[in-house]
Queue: 3 jobs
Job 1
Amino acid sequence: MTQLALFGGGEDGPSGLRYTDDFINAAIEQDLIDRIAALPLQRFQFGAFEGNRRVASFGYRYDYALQRLAEAEPIPDWVTPVARRVEAWAGLPEASVRQVLCTEYEVSVGIGWHRDKPHFDKVFGLSLGSPCKFRFRRRSGDRWERHTLEALPRSLYMMDGEARSVWEHSIPPVEARRYSITFRTMKRT
Ligand SMILES: O=C(O)CCC(=O)C(=O)O
């Protein structure tokens, strides 16, 4: 099992990025894929624009038109055991994960450069079905400093610290259908 914790930043990649292979086994992975594929997934809406990835939000969703969080359907029972496992892996209290996003990336679909909304604190991503290049960049004077994480199916990454708040991330178009489950904790207000 590959475990990676990048605390130093710089050449080694973003500080606050943590990654592990084989977070779940193949049987659980297939069950999660089947569950996500059966959801009423909708193309990602941001204001007047639509992304090609298809998503379902639980707990909260970000309303781009109103620029605020809105309540969403409760986190489904089939996700809860995985959320508990994520919390245990990160050393967080139970029920810290309050937002879950299920995403489907068809072949040739990716996600552009962004940082997650500031309402959320730690962000975790479980990769399902196929690998992706999970890219990071941050400004360094007049150039971009870059880092790429090869996120394998069944792996989990965590973005905290600078990986979360300073670096942007993106995924180039995937070569095979990929699903992901994003788990987010909330910023304390
Ligand atoms: O699919 C993933 O692992 C990343 C998803 C993501 O960055 C997002 O929805 O903001």
Note: Residues 119 and 189 are 9 Å apart (CA to CA).
Job 2
Amino acid sequence: MLSSLFTRLKNGLTKTRQHMTQAIANSLLGEKFTDAQILEEIETQLLMADVGVKATEKIIDQLIQERARNNLRDAPHLFEILNTALLDILKPCEHPLAVSSHHPYVILMVGINGAGKTTTIGKLAKRLQSEGKTVLLAAGDTFRAAAIEQLQVWGERNHIPVISGIPGGDSAAIIFDALNAAKARNIDVVIADTAGRLHTQQHLMDELAKIKRVIRKFDNSAPHEVMLVLDAGIGQNALQQAKQFQASVEVSGITVTKLDGTAKGGIVFAMAEELRLPIRFIGVGEAIDDLRPFEANDFVRALLTVPEE
Ligand SMILES: Nc1nc2c(ncn2[C@@H]2O[C@H](COP(=O)(O)OP(=O)(O)OP(=O)(O)O)[C@@H](O)[C@H]2O)c(=O)[nH]1
Ligand SMILES: [Mg+2]
């Protein structure tokens, strides 16, 4: 079971692995590069995988420090040093979501259009349900009728109640209704969907702040999690997006989706280094099991496992 989950993670990260570590491994094979050339090659590959300037510098610095003691051309050593350097960056962001502290525990999902909010809600709801928790969803994306339906159909299929209103209705009011419904039904976790929005749309960002205020009227300690969903495929833009959302609603955790569809998975390192927010989950595919709690060790191991040749 465990190994098959790891295989899924590894498969999901194939594109990033090929661009990042496989390319580094290839550069070590056969030809005689100098250490300086190897470092340059690694730097290029990291930047191309969207690891970002800051995290890349940190990794290269660590390699330079270790160079005195180890031969960089010795691939096992090099990968060992890389492993440590990558883990150093990710470890501080490994904080799993703990939903037991409040009742109901309230999760507010935010992010731009198409980032994967609604899909993530579905996967997360099933995960929580399988852990024995009762879940209720709030269809806070009132922007499009289809968005409400998407959540309703999904809820019916999975026997998870969905509180929804009319298209164009007040998102904060629906979420407030959902919270009261959850309280009346003694539900453990409420997950509130919201419409996708760009950080440049100030009125929509203000609406998020309003939603948060209304939730607080229900429970002063809520929302217990403001989860920002970021699409790994947009690379460095995700950082700017995150900073803007953080300024409007104080994001408390991140889910990074669509790592399976991109070679830019190195963005997770840039996020860890520059945002310093807990990374709760990563999405490496469309199936339920493909939303995984973020574990730094597994993530790095999946990236560095280079097939034998
Ligand atoms: N391959 C892959 N696809 C994903 C993943 N997460 C989400 N998707 C897909 O991304 C698309 C958009 O997902 P949604 O959940 O509808 O995105 P959203 O953020 O709710 O979008 P809006 O409601 O328009 O703001 C869907 O086709 C999902 O199946 C993932 O981890 N991997
Ligand atoms: Mg949606």
Note: The pocket of guanosine-5'-triphosphate (ligand 1) is lined by residues 111, 113-119, 141, 147, 196, 229, 257-258, 260-261, 283, 285-286, 290 (CB under 6 Å).
Job 3
Amino acid sequence: MNEELQGGNWTHQDPDYLPPEVDASKPSIARVYDAFLGGKDNFAVDRAIALEGMKRFPDRGEGARQNRAMLFRGVKYMTEQGIDQFLDVGSGLPTMDNTHSVAQRINPDARVVYVDIDPIVLSHARAILQTNEHTRVITADMREPEAIFHHPKVEGFLDFSRPIGMLLVAVVHHLGDDEGPEELVNVYKSRMAPGSYMQLTHFCSCAPEVRDLEGVLLAMLGTGRARDMKEIVRFFDGLELVEPGVVHLPEWRPEGPVKKPLSLGGLCIAGGMGHKR
Ligand SMILES: C[S@@+](CC[C@H](N)C(=O)[O-])C[C@H]1O[C@@H](n2cnc3c(N)ncnc32)[C@H](O)[C@@H]1O
């Protein structure tokens, strides 16, 4: 299992350089997720959580990869429907493929704003995006949506009077019940113009083993809350669900045959896409 987690190679010209905002002694959700994905932008403290999680939930990172794959199928779908601007909240560290690359392959003028609470995302993405005038990255907290909508890099760059692709992918499960996740998602939906789409995925309690992984994440990272299918479906209230609705991610508009029964990795996250009429 260890051979899958080979991080620690901070991507920078000088391998010893760490941006001042990066604390390698404290785990970061973005870097733990990177470790689950088999990326290299993580530290020992992050890998310890991913390894403990994989012990309890031996999907070898498949859930994270399924989530990423569904994210891209969704962005491709929205771009093909004519969506040319995206707000990707809780975007995570850029990896092999990203929202902007998927959208801009279809529409080179598509605009994307990445939002993440972790400043590591900004410092990491800055270099990658230096030459991409249609893509921006900001550090902000999804619990403060107005600060995002009125951020100087967002206002005037995204036009909220036109349809938008709102991405809340694998981020709402980092909100506790006491933080009002439904109300917060409602705020994002209320800012979407008719014709917009919202893609949302969420850690799902459909398999009992997911509770073990949830236990590891809550204990070691303080966040990562599994919710049941009914709770996940409720996040889409007021939107028309794009076929096939809210499902386990391998079943959302797959590009090929889906192997059944679904593996643990396939069961651990559910989600879908809603269309605002
Ligand atoms: C599991 S990763 C998902 C990344 C990407 N959306 C994906 O699905 O591949 C969750 C990301 O959400 C970010 N995050 C967690 N809480 C957040 C908050 N309150 N506001 C903004 N971002 C947050 C984390 O820093 C992390 O990068």
Note: The chain has a mean pLDDT of 93.
